[in-house]
Amino acid sequence: MSMKIGQAPFTKRVSTSLQDSFMREAVSSAQGRLTGVREQIIDELGNWEEWRELSAAIRKHTIDHLDYYLYELSENVIKRGGNVYFAETPEEANQYISSIITKKNAKKVVKSKSMVTEEIGLNHALKASGCEVVETDLGEYIIQLAEDPPSHFLAPALHKNRDQIQEVFRTKRGYANSSNPEELTAFAREQLRNEFLSADIGITGCNFAIADSGTISLVTNEGNAEMVTTFPKTQISVMGMERIVPTWKEFDIVVSMLARSAVGQKLSTYVSTLTGPKAKDEMDGPEEFHLVILDNGRSKMIGSEFQSALHCIRCSACLNVCPVYRHIGGHAYGSIYSGPIGAVISPILGGYEEYKELPYASTLCSACTDACPVKIPLHELLLKHRQNIVEKEGGAPLPEKMVMRAFKLVTSSAKMYQFSVKSASFVSRSFLKGENMTSGPFSLKEWTRTRDFPAPSNDSFRDWFKNRSKGGSAF
Amino acid sequence: MKVSLFLTCLIDVFSSEIGKDTVELLEKLGCEVDFPEGQTCCGQPAYNSGYIKEAKETMKHMINTFRHADYVVSPSGSCMTMLKEYENLFMDEPEWANKAEELSNKSYELTQFIVEVLDIEDVGARYEGTATYHTSCHMSRLLGVDESPLTLLKHVKGLHVVPLPFKQDCCGFGGTFSVKMARISEQMVDEKVHHIKSTEANVLIGADCGCLMNIGGRINRLGNPIEVKHIAQILNHS
């Protein structure tokens, strides 16, 4: 599995999702809950706009000087005895990681939650090389057993209910108890404990790397990242090349913005920070540490109109407020990166050919832009994609191009416009049923499936205005 | 005070009543209303579909049409948001930059104009009923006008305004989205109508014709007895 999920075309994915009433209910209630707690914690903090400004400035500065900070980070990781590998493509990243697996003769890998390893399809690559991979974040553990892709950045199993989870545990792991969440969690905990103890290598993602100390940070609410990074002798962390902050001072701010925006917490239950392999005088930590820094299309965003999308801290606040995401859920996006930020970055990382519909899966209501803690103008970036598809990619359908060309002609000429308004009114009358259109022609057919379309006014505002200014009565 | 009305294409075609109420309301409040006949559309349908070049031709036409105006007022938050954006869009075109900026600076959404420029909160309207108000996305988030309509409605005699749950959620219109992504759009509007019904209001008020057309279309189809009104129709009612 890689960034792309499923083979079905966009419209099919959407209709499948819209029919999944359980998923829709789960997403809707999660959105309600998360948005509520987020608003509370924001109010409690106070001066939210100033915090956003500051966080946006930190992210912008870092990305503007990404080459400098990446160099500093890699120097510091090496200084602390770690290894750094820059991977341009998912294949390079997977090959590097597989080579460590082979060298260590590893049979089992435990992983903490990581979107970037989903992006490169790491689990698939490792399995192919004969190594067992176990996800240890509870949500990831569930969807790994269910062989499902994640549907949300932070709550990957959001689309599954407890009965479905009970069934997955029963068929895949011989679970014999009820669907009570506590019993389910206790079972997973017991299962995972054995996995931690028998793993050869721990693989993690990276929420933020701190350049001036060569530190990797991981944010969890389950503590599984501690286990992944302390039990196995070898640790590999994979990060997108933008996931970096200059110093601990900036880290302090962005990690708090992440927890507040993601789940309405002041700070996540665990914030693990790891600096290189175990030193001589240290009690625990891995003996060997590798940091894989992934490009996979990110560097082409630098200097482009989409650079600000690299500011993203993957908090998923934009998913949690998006009304489109609420109805179609994560899988309909066809990419592990869903919601508004997914609709922005998936076409960049995966190409327009694969993801050309996503920029249109938005009403441009800008709820996402408002929610973003680092002020990414998400709805404007979606608009830029649309512009690119029209102007550069030639991807817009011909009828749409013709309509827009006609729009330009009509609306940039007073005469043409007034003539068209009159004709539209005349033509649409033939489709009317009473005062409304209940079954429209052409593209209005879709609109009128479940909604009426209004009839044009019987009288003209223009005539009314002209008459009264002449002193005549209005009709 | 002389005010030039930007009617918007939706009102031009579908709701002449809203245009008339807007004119009468502004006149009642002491404005002299001018209607530049050359006006067409703000350009948003093309702009939001990614056809920026085409949209800019329309925008240039609008800039010229409203060149003479002291104030441009429109009964549509979304179209006004587009007009306000002109100054950013023409920033790098010396021939148009100043003119675009001028237009953006003198343009106001109707309720914003009444509260902020005319400094009036009670327009002397009367409307009997229980209403709920739909907060449109562009008007509240991008134009930053969210209090003015509620302030004005609060002073309408006989009108009881009840809050709309999940008011921050988009109704699913989104211009061409409502046709291009109709299957998603219809779910969004259905949810919106569900929330409106839950308020037990008999009138839904809004300040954007696109949203009202969408929500009203769904309300009609369901056969609900909820009236859908533009805020100008309420404020001009006595």
Comma- or semicolon-separated keywords:
heterodimer, A: alpha/beta, six-stranded parallel β-sheet, 22 helices, 12 strands, about 50% helix, about 10% strand, elongated, B: about 240 residues, alpha/beta, Rossmann fold, 2 domains, four-stranded parallel β-sheet
The number of distinct β-strands of chain A equals 12
Output the structural class of chain A. alpha/beta
CATH architecture of the domain at 47-300 in chain A: 3-Layer(aba) Sandwich
Name the poorly predicted regions of chain A.
none
In CATH, the topology of the domain at 47-300 in chain A is named Rossmann fold
Helix content of chain A: 40-55%
N-to-C span of chain A: 67 Å
Oligomeric grouping of the chains:
heterodimer
- The CATH architecture classification of the largest domain in chain B is 3-Layer(aba) Sandwich
Name the helicity range of chain B: 40-55%
Q: Name the CATH superfamily classification of the domain at 47-300 in chain A.
A: NagB/RpiA/CoA transferase-like
Unreliable segments of 5+ consecutive residues of chain B: none
User: How much of the residues of chain A is beta strand, in percent?
Assistant: 5-15%
Q: Kindly estimate the percentage of residues of chain B that lie in beta strands according to DSSP.
A: 15-25%
Number of helices of chain B: 13
Instruction: Choose one word for the global shape of chain A.
Output: elongated
Radius of gyration of chain B: 17 Å
Morphology call of chain B: globular
The CATH topology label of the largest domain in chain B is: Rossmann fold
Mean pLDDT of chain A: 92
